[in-house]
Request: fold
Amino acid sequence: MADEQVTYETLDEGRIARIWLDRPESQNAQSRTLLVQLDEAFTRAEADDQVRVVILAARGKNFSAGHDLGSEAALAERKPGPDQHPTFRSHGATRSASMEKLYLQEWHFYFENTKRWRDLRKITIAQVQGNAISAALMLIWACDLIVAADDAKFSDVVGVRLGMPGVEYYAHPWEFGPRKAKELLLTGDSIDAEDAYRLGMVSKIFPVEELTDKTLEFARRIAERPTMAALLIKDSVNAASDAMGFTEALRHGFHIHELGHAHWAAHNENRLPLGLPPDVPDWRTLGAPKPARRDQP
Reply:
């Protein structure tokens, strides 16, 4: 593949598939090419009767910096999609058409994909190291289990930076709990692996240098379970969450997210293109020295 941003391998005589986000030079920022290839990899694992467990991992220091908002490749992928340039700032039909295109694209790439991965007919494990920012949460929350390196950090910055309630797959209250979700979205703060473990979001914490091997060991334990029993457990737990309103809350959260886009566009038409406010960090700034600032409570 000319632009291979996701790689796929099988282990343990085919019982375990491991999918790698393979864009470490960009901190695994999620271009649409990456998401298409990720969907193809999940579909490949689902269709393979030998595979019992799928590990979603990432090359490099960080799991993922979230959506790729600013690289040349990412901007090119959006054309002829929503206009990101001065014509977007015109009034009337042009803006309406742009918002409709944005809505449809985000529904497909970010919402429907993630929901489908959540219901994959395999047991899935997310293997997380370093930063998992905003849209990275969508990928790991779609998995049945999450294991983390001791250096892992989880955050969603779109609330305070973009005026959104959170990313497109709005599982925050279910994963963090209602009050913690409000705190993290209102402040843009992150939680570490220990906090995520205490909240029940993370199942295991491993030293970062042992993460790959320990995750594989964990996957092997689950792969030993009878396939049908494992899927019945997955379906039962997912159905219980759905009965408590999970999927309906996801749909509502997605629509409110899109309303946030429209609000941003309406109030920033003479500033920056949609989705690119001046203080949003992207993969190019991860790891850069932070400016001096006063301590905040």
About this structure: Strands lie at 6-11, 16-21, 53-58, 123-128, 131-133, 145-149, 153-155, 191-192, 204-206.
